[in-house]
Amino acid sequence: MNPLSGPYRGYTMVPHGRGWFVSPLLASWRQPTTDSDSIVFGQDGMSAPQPLGFTFPFTDGESSSVWVNKDGYACFGSTPYFALGLPPAIRFLSGAPCIAPFWSAFDQCNCGTVRIDHDPVGNSWASITWSNVRESGTNYLSTFQTVIHADGMIDVAFFSCHANSHAALSGWSAGFGAMPPGPTDLSELDTIVRITLPDRNSMLLESSDAPRLGTTIQMETSHMPEIVKFVFTAIGMTKYDPGIDLTGLGVTGCNQLASYETGMMSLVRARAAYLNLIIPLNATLVGTHAYLQSVGFDRTANPAGILLSNGFELRVDF
Questions:
Q1: Model's pTM, two decimal places?
Q2: 204-315 CATH fold
Q3: Which of 13, 62, 97, 294 has the most Cβ atoms closer than 10 angstroms to its Cβ?
Q4: Mind listing the pLDDT tens digit for each residue in 207-226?
């Protein structure tokens, strides 16, 4: 990315359904105040959670704190998941939900400051400003900021940015396996508005265990957004292929793939839910088929507030 000219420029992200309106910057640069908090980073470059002063809503959850990284991004949610050693683009898509005003590689010591400021009147916004941070291995300095609003809006402003020896990323990632969006020419955001679409992988129901007589198999449901706290796994004897479209019930874009004769509830821990199924030692069960599908509850997902996984077929064997 070439250095950005002018006093500052950038873009504003306004929530729209499960996506965003991305427009030319609608806000002014917020100069850090003398009493703003200077952020301290750990050896891994991540800060402790920084209170926002409000609860920030985003597509897959909400957060009252933000974890700031020296490399120009900030994470939301209950944990700032990040994988050291992986390329930034993979960490951007696979880590926690985050806003990256200018994710590159910056020195941690003896270079610039990173500060967080808060709305002194109504706790309606918090700004994070990276000031004169030095690109690793060079003498190039960058200054940029992001402003997080209590209503879900995000501003990204560039004062002077350089990524001469490293890649740079800018934008929002829903994290946890988000799909690569492809490149975008940020200079176009000076004159046009972009609309982003929802990006969410379906919940995944799977098992690595073989369903044999006298054994217990573990079913795992994963890939759910952080807002999902418990999962119901329906178990039936009938498979629906290609499925029953539930859009008319408000479960937009989802199909029921299995009948429901019974089921079990599981709590979500570390973004996964587990269900243990005991297969009795009964020879009459050999060859029996069962069909499973998990249901998650996310009020932001669709009018019904329901997410469905893939269907999973079990066939009992010796």
A1: 0.66
A2: Immunoglobulin-like (2.60.40)
A3: 294
A4: 989 999 999 999 999 888 77
